[in-house]
Write a structure and sequence with these properties.
Elements lengths: L3 H8 L3 H8 L9 H13 L17 E6 L5 H16 L3 E6 L4 H13 L4 E4 L18 E5 L8 E4 L1 H14 L5 E4 L6 H16 L9 E2 L5 H12 L7 E4 L2 H13 L9 E6 L12 E4 L2 H13 L9 E4 L2 E3 L11
Parallel strand pairs: 1-2, 1-3, 3-4, 4-5, 5-11, 6-7, 6-8, 8-9, 9-10
Antiparallel strand pairs: 10-12
Helix pairs in contact: 1-2, 1-3, 4-10, 6-7, 8-9
Length: about 325
């Protein structure tokens, strides 16, 4: 019997694309790729069996979404995109929070599974404490969004590229002494953005200096503290890339407390493009994370008919949003 993977291979598309094309609940696609999928399905005699889908329906039509906290604008934005995408697929999303604690993450997932959700999307993955739960006893799959753990399939933004674009923007302005405000080392969003920062410096022939990398949390307070540490250096940076917009707001607060003007005395760039940063007294240059694409990818992974044994990673491309917080450095 032909499988969805057979159809996708014959049509030259991904399994998730073939699944979307053949899902009768969705508006029919009129693209050439969709036509190839339908023709391949007909040629192979493929018949979609909803009960064979990777998302094993328990009858609740509900998916659980696990986030660190909804007071974090990034997580709230992503959850809203997941909820909207789920609704478009005939599913209802419920949320649980963990405050980024591994023990709370396990409790949240197990609680959702006991409530017979049809699948779970987690934004809480940690590389230092990856969560492993036997899903077979619950008949529900888990996938990740925003972060990765090397175990589960995940839908993420290209954070390495985003970190590169942010740093390259500052280099192109003429900055050579560029600080980095980091997030937690267990979050791939932070570590990949750091890697992009380093890649841009190496490409430009700027020596790496670990003294310019400070911080361990996604918060305004952490950003403010990290900025003070960077600005206290004997040779302080003329620009700072913060791997999260909240961190960047904290950097701007630290600069204001020191009487520094942005961007005249210090250029600042953030990451995510949360709504408030375009309304700041000095609008923040930032990297826009494609939350809609990340959410859509996570749902596609959850709904895959044939998930396979190897984890898959879907990657969406971020965009540089230039505003008023970056400029050429002043002569010292």
């Amino acid at each position: 019997m032909a499988t969805l993977r057979d159809v996708a291979l014959a049509a030259g598309v991904s399994t998730s694309t073939a699944s979307r094309v053949l899902d009768e609940r969705l508006p029919p696609s009129r693209t050439a790729a969709a036509d190839r999928v339908r023709q391949a399905a007909a040629d192979l005699g493929y018949v979609r069996d909803p009960l064979a889908a990777g998302l094993r329906r328990s009858g609740t039509s509900t998916i659980g979404v696990v986030v660190p906290r909804l007071t974090d604008t990034v997580m709230a934005m992503l959850y809203e995109e997941i909820a909207a995408g789920a609704l478009a697929r005939g599913l209802f999303a419920v949320v649980a929070t963990t405050h980024d604690r591994p023990e709370a993450e396990r409790l949240a997932v197990e609680s959702l599974l006991r409530r017979r959700v049809d699948g779970i999307i987690r934004t809480t993955a940690r590389t230092d404490a990856p969560l492993r739960i036997d899903e077979s006893q619950f008949g529900a799959r888990q996938v990740l969004a925003l972060r990765a753990d090397g175990i589960h399939s995940t839908s993420i933004g290209d954070d390495t590229l985003g970190g590169y674009l942010a740093t390259r923007k500052l280099i192109d302005h003429g900055h050579r002494r560029i600080g980095l405000v980091m997030g937690p080392g267990y979050a791939t969003t932070a570590t990949n953005r750091r890697d992009g920062y380093r890649n841009a410096l190496v490409e430009a022939g700027i020596p790496l200096d670990d003294a310019l990398i400070v911080g361990d949390s996604f918060s305004m307070e952490a950003g403010e503290s990290a900025a003070h540490a960077l600005l206290d250096l004997a040779d302080p940076p003329t620009a700072i890339f913060a791997v999260n917009d909240n961190n960047a707001i904290g950097v701007m607060a630290a600069a204001a407390a020191r009487g520094l003007r942005i961007p005249d005395d210090l250029s600042v760039i953030g990451y995510n493009d949360i709504p408030v940063v375009s309304k700041l007294p000095v609008p923040l240059t930032t990297i826009r994370e494609p939350f809609n694409l990340i959410a859509r990818g996570a749902i596609d992974l959850l709904l895959e008919d044939t998930p396979g044994d190897e984890p898959r990673t879907l990657v969406a491309t971020p965009t540089l949003i230039p505003r008023k917080s970056t400029a050429a450095p002043r002569a010292r």
